[in-house]
Amino acid sequence: MSSMDLLCCENGVIPDEVKAYIDPILINDDRVLENLLRDDAQSSIKNYFVTIQREITPKMRELVAEWMWEVCEEQQCQEEVFALAMNYMDRFLCTIAVKKTQLQLLGTACLLVSSKLKETIILQSNVLVAATDSSFSLHDLQLWESLVLSKLKWDMAAVLPHDFIYYLVRRIDKDLLYDYSKVQKHAHFLIAMCVRDFKFSVFSPCVIAIGCITAALDGLDWLRRRAWTMTALNDRFSQITGINKNIIQNCTDAVQSMVAASISNYVAMKCQNPEEKSPDLTTFPATPPDVADVSHLNF
């Protein structure tokens, strides 16, 4: 064996992930959408703050969700990782009461499990623990990972709003597929905003997807250019999915209100601090103090 046989030419750099092409056969098969809608109808989340949880509040959930989103942004996770982790957390909180001091640990365990389902390169446990300023140990994280899997009965392949976007856009207007990346980018961002806010948990994943697609199309000026009204678009979505148009309208209104409030808050912030740069969602705080000290907050 020569020395050249032992030469390693790998540079240690992990190449960018390559996503599979969207299969036109599946996209055009109505049975796929029908199966998604069937699972969607069974994915409702009850208000566990009223029925089960006694220590945690919606505000605490929002703080932990903000932190989880920032972790996903910093680690450049797939868009679905955050939404799936929040799905796990909400479903878990429907089954058992947790203490305020355990909420971030639960969120971290949900992120770990979610990344194992959605990522080719999973989030590392030690990185997640470090992100909490070592608020708990690796052993604690492993125990809670097992607890999450057990309480959810290993049913981890949940339906997400992301799953519906292409199927719905395809059935609204085939020409939209040429601008699909723009619609998808806007819709994914809006979905992440919805997932953070517990008030959207009353809507199914499909309804959230519809509300975010409608808001994205409105923001991209597609409705005006195509001479569509939101009411007409919601009616069309109702025909496609069989979902009551009043429910769709309620979600669409909620998404629009959320976007308007975000814009208003941003404008107010800029007026108070004109020199301040716009917030960077990819900035990764080592430990958000409001989350780390969530047990000491008075809501």
Automatic annotation (TrEMBL):
Residues 66-150 form the Cyclin-like domain. It comes from the Eukaryota. Keywords: Cell cycle, Cell division, Cyclin. SUPFAM superfamilies: Cyclin-like. Residues 159-287 form the Cyclin C-terminal domain. It holds the Pfam family Cyclin_N. Gene3D superfamilies: Cyclin-like. GO terms for biological process: cell division; mitotic cell cycle. The keyword Acyltransferase does not apply. The keyword Cell division applies. Belongs to the cyclin family. This is Cyclin D. It comes from Bemisia tabaci.
